[in-house]
Amino acid sequence: MLVELTALIRREYLRWIRAPMWIVAGLMTPILYLLLFGQAFNLGALVGNVPGGPVVLSRALWGAPDYFSYFAVGMVGLVAVTSALFAGTGVIFDKQLGIMQRTIATPVRRSTIFASILIFRGFLVVLPIFIVLGLALTFAHIPGLVGLTVTQPVGADGVAEVVLAIFILAIAFTSLFLAFGFLFARVESYFGVVNLLNLPILFTSNALYPVGTEPAWLQNITAYNPISLAVDVMRETFFGTTYYPHPVLVYLLGLLAWAAALVAVALLLAARALATK
Amino acid sequence: MLRSPTGEATLTDAIQVEDLEKTYPPAVRAVQGVSFAVHPGEIFGFLGPNGAGKTTTVSMLTTLLRPTKGRAAVAGLDVAEQPAEVRREIGLVFQDSTADGELTGRENMILAGGLFGMRPSECRGRIDELLGRMDLTEAADRRVKGYSGGMKRRLELAVAMVHTPKILFLDEPTIGLDPQGRAGFWRYIKELRQEQQVTIFMTTHYLDEVENLCDRIAIIDHGRIIASGTNDSLKERVGGDLVELRVPADGADLTETLGSVPGVREVSREANIYRVKCPRAEGLVSALVKACDLAGVTVEGVTVQRPSIDRVFLELTGKAYREEGYDDGRAAQASVFHTRGRGGR
Ligand SMILES: Nc1ncnc2c1ncn2[C@@H]1O[C@H](COP(=O)(O)OP(=O)(O)O)[C@@H](O)[C@H]1O
Ligand SMILES: [Mg+2]
User: Is the CB of B45 under 6 A from ligand 1?
Assistant: First the structure.
């Protein structure tokens, strides 16, 4: 089974490595966000001199020392969605080119086919996330640049929690979009639906702007949004527990529930698409 | 247990098909109860015009489609009950190329081996051998998207053979190739069969393909098999060879005379032309001419027409066989038979 899995992943990898524009474009978008949007939009500079300003700001930013630090963690969620968005396209192309058909005609198990796609597409989601997070953390040590400032010591368990949150989030969104890839026969219908989903997912999360001023119903939705859950794990780890009602583990479990449900849905649709008709 | 169409149990057959049916929802009856057997080591041709049900049949035999009714065993394994085991024993060349264009020929083959549980190191030798066999050694490390049509088809063959299957399924393997490319491809298939001892089931809508390549054939039309057998046995159905004798217009009637020549099956006359059907024209032509001489009639011209599969198709379906997208003059020839067939009925 491992041989089959490796063979399938190797193929995906070879296709990916041979489309350099694709890679560059995928990585450039989040980096541009960090450099342009994140650097220019500095809330702290606005309220820094007002009496009591820093405290208000810290509360509004859920403990983050500045907006960039708040935003950089949120970028993880943004990058997760925008990278995972393409996960299903490979499936559709493989269906159209008959490559899927050829694979199905071999003794390879359906679950192995699904696993290979999830693993590789998940990797394509995780990769830019770590690059963005690494860059943001590095910026904090470069004079003249605003960066992601961690305000409390993060131990090995903290790092593990952050990494886990990133992986689970990537699996959740990759599965979500893979499900649509298995469902649809054409890229047009795929992007129609995916683009429709994309924005509400992002904007009902706490990734980009601080939560606290919207109506209660929206705050509830935000709290359960998978991006929010992942981002909460990271912010609580980086900026302290002061403003968070739950320990990190609660957010992680919520995220895990999302991922499990989405993997199940994707598996179901994959099984249907790969079955003998 | 499955039985061959002739009734006796044949465990040794490579493929046994019994009353196989496929109805696409809601009611497209693509295959309507076909039965046949393919013997080990032979090249079996499944001939039929577009839309006859060839791909649907192949898809059921290769476990990609579930039969609506009937049974099929491939390498002794039931396609509906043991699909995974069947997949292990078969190689498949689809109607359309399915190699990954972004990968090289060799990478595509390594992938194919991997899907059958072979590590790259385990199948390296096999891959080199097959690439060499298919004259692809030089192109092996180039990306497939740059291959010519013929090279792609050969690669598909090589890919399908990596895991040394017992039975190879080819669905219209030479579609889109020019006549030379097709003749070349036949040679590769024959060599493969010879060297790898593989049984080959292939579909085609080219008449010359079954005539030149296949040991036995089945003709499918509208989802039903209308005839099957060896090329020769099928051709014998149309009365074998046809000898046309042209005589002077004013001569006596020779129908009786010609009919009494040993080996003649049927004689018909149209004005001053006699058409003599016989199993084999060899050796008979001089006897026919001599018989005319003895009757005092000098034969002015003789032509011999070999039986052909399009004549078989015509006699069985009452319509001419048409090959779309490929014309080497056969289609025209077939329509000539068409008018003749109508006239003779
Ligand atoms: N997926 C499908 N759904 C409905 N009808 C189909 C499908 N595939 C093929 N058919 C129909 O079934 C018949 C046989 O098709 P096919 O097996 O592809 O023929 P061939 O390969 O001999 O050209 C055709 O009438 C075709 O239109
Ligand atoms: Mg077909």
Answer: no
pLDDT at B341: 30
Whether the CB-CB separation of B194 and B133 falls below 8 Å is answered with no
Residue B144 near chain A (CB below 8 Å): no
Nearest alpha carbon, ligand 1 atom 26: B51
Kindly list the distances between the CA atom of residue A76 and the CA atoms of A151, A231, B266, in Å, as whole numbers in the listed order. 18, 7, 86
In eight-state DSSP terms, residue B51 is T
Which is it for the CA torsion A109, A114, A119, A120, positive or negative? positive
CA atoms within 13 A on the CB side of B224: 5
Delineate the domains of chain B, giving CATH numbers in brackets: 15-233+321-326 (3.40.50.300), 239-306 (3.30.70.100)
Task: Say which of A15, A105, A107 has its CB closest to residue B64.
Answer: A105
Spatial contact of A103 and A196, defined as CB atoms under 8 Å apart: no
Of B182, B181, B194, B192, the C-alpha closest to B158 is B192
The CA-CA-CA angle for residues B303, B308, B309, to 5°, reads 165
Side chain identity, residue B35? S
Tens of pLDDT, residue by residue over A101-159, are: 899 999 999 999 999 999 999 999 999 899 889 988 888 888 878 888 888 888 899 89
| Residue type at B88 in one-letter notation | R
Cβ neighbours around A16 below 10 Å, total: 18
Instruction: Determine if the pTM surpasses 0.90.
Output: no
Nearest to B276 by CA among B257, B294, B293: B257
Contacts of A276 in chain B (CB under 8 A): 63-66, 83
